[in-house]
Design goal:
The chain is α/β, with parallel strands linked by helices. The chain is about 50% helix and about 15% strand.
Amino acid sequence: METQETVLTNIHEHVMTITLNRPKVNAFNLAMIAATQKAFREAARDAQVRAVLLTSSGAVFSAGQDLNELQQAQGKSLRKHLLETYNPLVVQIRRLEKPVLAALPGVAAGAGLGVALACDLRICADNARFVVGFGGIGLVPDSGVSLFLPSLIGIGRAAEFTFNNQPITAEQALAWGLVNRVAPAAQLAQQALAWAVELAHGPLPAMALAKRAFNKAMYPQLEEVLDYEGHMQEIAAQTPEHREGVSAFLEKRAPKYI
């Protein structure tokens, strides 16, 4: 049983820092997802919070869904799981009328990538990597990845890195617009907080309205896409490839799909 807090929060100069805190790889389980949702609700309600900095403890932002928990829930609806967990979290981030900056110290994969991409801005360490991840266990992108990734890097690149499951480097991420800035790993926390404080001292109503406009222009069907991802995930979860992918991952071997 976990006794530590899986999500930490603190407020400094009108910035709420939300820190994913589930070593070693900050994989999301139900408790951490619920705690992250709670933190964003608090950020929305608290008038002294004018910007949010989402980051993590350790060298990995998030490896995505905890596959041990997923395996224990075999037979349960993945769409229902998404409707209760990542989908509302992604919507929370997009609807929060305050700027949300993600500081990514290392790998962001699977649902962890989706959460990072839902944020307004991203700064990463120079050794960070971005992995779509779902194909590695025979699943399809969810948590908004099917929408956010093509909108940021183009559908051709999104398809390539979804199909081959290879990492996108920090250098590629910057060149393609996946992240806004790259910092030396040792300076990431300092640079991210300074940027978040700068955002917090900006014209909040104008930024909130701009975010509404961006959502209308770029993501008007966000909730419909999230729901459709759930339907696709439900289909993928019934395939032999998914079962083989999860088994191979947990057994630390390459999957055999043929």
